[in-house]
Amino acid sequence: MRIGYGYDSHEFFPGVPLKIGGVELHHDKGLAGHSDGDVLLHALTDALLGAVGSGDIGSLFPPSDPKWKGANSVIFLEEAMRHIEKAGYRVVNADTTLVLSSPKIGPHAKQLQASVAKLLKVEPSCVGIKAKTPEGTGTENACIAHAVVLLEKI
Ligand code: MG
User: Fold this and answer.
1) To which H or E segment does residue 43 belong?
2) Residue 123 in 3-state DSSP?
3) I want to staple 144 with a disulfide (CB 3.0 to 4.6 A). Which of 47, 54, 99, 123 is the partner?
């Protein structure tokens, strides 16, 4: 068995599409980043890579490379899945926590869960999607994601 942990944060900007967990959510602000700013997929990508000692998202997809400008973060997660499969592992389950002031994630949690489960090749019941407000942290204009994954040998 292997465990992996990932963390990411992105700042909200008006007029930018909001992508979380591979799902586009309707909101007046979105997450800015070199790619599509999908903070949840970035944290999961790092968790997968970390679990098999394969570096991190920044070393695989350098922000300095214009190729990744506006990139769909599903590409990053799929590459991380190839790394764990090459190392002989598959995902058992994943658990995640988002920290953001808005929009509320609860109404979209099932949709995010299904999207992430499909990407990780597990059942939706094997993916935790939780959200907290950033009370007292002074990060109201950011979205933060924490992710842990458990892997088992194929
Ligand atoms: Mg990121």
Assistant:
1) helix 39-51
2) coil
3) 99
- Ligand 1 centroid – CA 110 distance (Å): 22
Residues with CB under 5 A from ligand 1 (ion): 8, 42
Rounded CA separation 152/2 (Å): 6
pLDDT digits (tens, 9 = 90+) for 113-153: 999 999 999 999 999 999 999 999 999 999 999 999 999 99
- Give the CATH superfamily of 2-153: 2-C-methyl-D-erythritol 2,4-cyclodiphosphate synthase (3.30.1330.50)
Average pLDDT over residues 16-35: 93
Cα(19) to centroid of ligand 1, in Å? 12
pTM of the model: 0.97
